[in-house]
Every structure is written in structure tokens, then in C-alpha cells.
Amino acid sequence: MSLPAAEIKPAITRLKRAKGQLEAVIRALETEQDCQTSVMQLAAVAKAIDRAGYLIVASGMKQCFSEGGDEMDAKTLEKLFLSLS
User: Fold this and answer.
1) What's one GO MF term for it (predicted)?
2) Structure pTM?
3) Fewer beta carbons below 10 Å: N end or C end of the chain?
């Protein structure tokens, strides 16, 4: 199953933002900047990646069930969703 780009555009945007945040964390660590700020930014990156994953799985579930997907597709999506927790 492939997902339409329009459906996952918010997830792609979120991942790009997380990429920028992660690059900022790496720069901060390399230049020995404030550790507390780096940890807070790293937590924000992790949360953004998690949310993007949920958006992608939710889009897949929506598509699967709207198209009358088979049981295997539903089980696969459930497994993917649970792997994010």
C-alpha cells in the first residue's frame, strides 16, 4: 500500500522541521553549548518524529479502511502503530 503525498504532507513537514532541530542539537553539542537546552531540543525532536509516525500510520489506516482493505493490511497497520509506542 502506498500513501498519497497529499495525505502525508503534514508528516513530511514535521520530519523536515525535526531534521532542522536535530541539526541544531548536533551543532550545540559540537560547540559545547548549554547541555540543558540541547536536551530540551532533543526531546522536541523525538516528539516530532513520534507524531510524524502517528500521522503516517493514521493515514495508512484511513486509506486501508476506506478502500475495504483486507485483514492483513489491518494487522500490519496495527503492528506498525504499536511499534511507535
Assistant:
1) metal ion binding
2) 0.71
3) C
